TrEMBL record:
<dbReference type="InterPro" id="IPR027493">
    <property type="entry name" value="Ribosomal_bL31_B"/>
</dbReference>
<keyword id="KW-0687">Ribonucleoprotein</keyword>
<protein>
    <recommendedName>
        <fullName>Large ribosomal subunit protein bL31B</fullName>
    </recommendedName>
</protein>
<dbReference type="InterPro" id="IPR034704">
    <property type="entry name" value="Ribosomal_bL28/bL31-like_sf"/>
</dbReference>
<keyword id="KW-0689">Ribosomal protein</keyword>
<comment type="similarity">
    <text>Belongs to the bacterial ribosomal protein bL31 family. Type B subfamily.</text>
</comment>
<dbReference type="Pfam" id="PF01197">
    <property type="entry name" value="Ribosomal_L31"/>
</dbReference>
<comment type="subunit">
    <text>Part of the 50S ribosomal subunit.</text>
</comment>
<dbReference type="InterPro" id="IPR042105">
    <property type="entry name" value="Ribosomal_bL31_sf"/>
</dbReference>
<dbReference type="GO" id="GO:0005840">
    <property type="term" value="C:ribosome"/>
</dbReference>
<dbReference type="InterPro" id="IPR002150">
    <property type="entry name" value="Ribosomal_bL31"/>
</dbReference>
Length: 97
């Protein structure tokens, strides 16, 4: 790697305020977090830069189990009722199926 062209890589706390969840990891996002002056005292007693995120694994519907499954079969049937079925197309041409 070329020296002097990469952002600093260090510890940073990512915080999901909606879920009240935070985790400590290492990231280059610490450079932008310290520019804003936002820091947090972590469980180990040290102060780290903090980055607020809108969604994390603690609040994402896929990970929390609140994800909805779309009823694709029902949507197709509703479309066919509204607009009618399409004629089946074969190699010879359309047929009335």
């Amino acid at each position: 790697m070329k020296p002097g062209i990469h952002p600093p890589y260090g510890p940073v706390v990512f915080r999901d305020r909606a879920a009240g969840f935070a985790f400590l990891t290492r990231s280059t996002a610490a450079a932008t977090a310290t520019a804003g002056g936002r820091t947090i005292e972590w469980e180990d007693g040290n102060t780290y830069p903090v980055v607020d995120v809108e969604i994390s694994s603690a609040s994402h519907p896929f990970y929390t189990g609140t994800a909805r499954v779309l009823d694709t079969a029902g949507r197709v049937e509703r479309f066919e009722r509204r607009y009618g079925k399409r004629p089946k197309v074969t190699a010879k041409g359309p047929s009335d199926a």
